[in-house]
From TrEMBL:
It is found in: Cytoplasm. The gene is psmB. InterPro entries: Ntn_hydrolases_N (IPR029055), Pept_T1A_Psome_bsu_arc (IPR019983), Pept_T1A_subB (IPR000243), Proteasome_sua/b (IPR001353), Proteasome_suB-type (IPR023333). The formation of the proteasomal ATPase PAN-20S proteasome complex, via the docking of the C-termini of PAN into the intersubunit pockets in the alpha-rings, triggers opening of the gate for substrate entry. Interconversion between the open-gate and close-gate conformations leads to a dynamic regulation of the 20S proteasome proteolysis activity. The lineage of its organism: Archaea, Methanobacteriati, Methanobacteriota, Stenosarchaea group, Halobacteria. The 20S proteasome core is composed of 14 alpha and 14 beta subunits that assemble into four stacked heptameric rings, resulting in a barrel-shaped structure. The two inner rings, each composed of seven catalytic beta subunits, are sandwiched by two outer rings, each composed of seven alpha subunits. The catalytic chamber with the active sites is on the inside of the barrel. Has a gated structure, the ends of the cylinder being occluded by the N-termini of the alpha-subunits. Is capped at one or both ends by the proteasome regulatory ATPase, PAN. This is Proteasome subunit beta. Keywords: Autocatalytic cleavage, Cytoplasm, Hydrolase, Protease, Proteasome, Threonine protease, Zymogen.
């Protein structure tokens, strides 16, 4: 008669029971994760501001390796993904680029099936669902857009949380940028004024945050489309 109990080993034998699942070992808690050391990260400061005329999105232009080495000084961290909407890149560059390609494809599919652009709120919900359940690593983008309901800005956290606001900031320089925005933002800002405020907030972050730098990209979003311009010199836009 076999004298085996669940999870035990045979009597007089050090081998595990063949009827139990084989368990692996946990990694040593002292081992370091080198992922961030070798992967391009945007570090970054990204800003979204709503106005009655449209939306302004601003980002810096720096990419780094593990936050220690500047790997690129001219990265466009905001991309058009909708006829009147754009998304920023924050975190892992590869994850963010894949995220943008996926959302852009879904927007095109929605429009081809229904014959109309996807509402920005629906796009934000879809982006949150993808962030929560998809393979995209270390992303925290801003989605900005204009539709029949008006101007919208959403921050999307890595766990899929979607939060709408009049203005928002994500990235490693967010505390520095928020300090200026809290003082400068006004409900009555024009689109041009919002661009100036956003550029000043990016410049404030660049002064102290090592993950942000090298200029600013400004995206102007209206019901007519998306216009994205890069500026290496802040004096041109402040």
């Amino acid at each position: 008669m076999n004298n085996w109990s669940q999870g035990s080993t045979p009597q007089g034998n050090g081998d595990p029971s063949p009827y139990e699942p084989e368990l692996g070992s946990l990694p040593d808690g002292n081992q370091s994760d080198d992922y961030g050391e070798n992967v391009n990260s945007t570090g970054t400061t990204t800003i979204g501001i709503t106005t009655d005329e449209g939306v302004v999105i601003a980002t810096d232009m720096r990419a780094s390796l593990g936050g220690r080495f500047v790997s690129n000084k001219d990265v466009q961290k905001v991309e058009q993904i909708h006829p009147t909407g754009a998304l920023t890149l924050v975190g892992s560059v590869g994850g963010a680029q894949s995220f943008i390609r996926t959302l852009r494809a879904e927007v095109n599919l929605y429009e081809s099936r229904r014959g109309e652009p996807m509402p920005i709120e629906a796009l934000a919900t879809l982006a949150g669902n993808f962030a929560r359940g998809g393979p995209f690593r270390a992303i925290n983008p801003i989605l900005g857009g204009v539709d029949s309901e008006g101007s919208h800005v959403y921050s999307i956290d890595p766990a899929g949380g979607v939060m709408a606001d009049d203005y928002t900031v994500t990235g490693s320089g967010m505390q520095l940028a928020y300090g200026l925005l809290e003082n400068e933002y006004d409900d009555d800002l024009s689109l041009d004024e919002a661009q100036t405020v956003a550029a000043r907030a990016i410049k404030s972050a660049v002064e102290r945050d090592t993950g942000s730098g090298n200029g600013v990209f400004l995206a102007e979003i209206t019901d007519e489309g998306v216009d994205i311009q890069g500026h290496n010199d802040f004096d041109a836009v402040i």
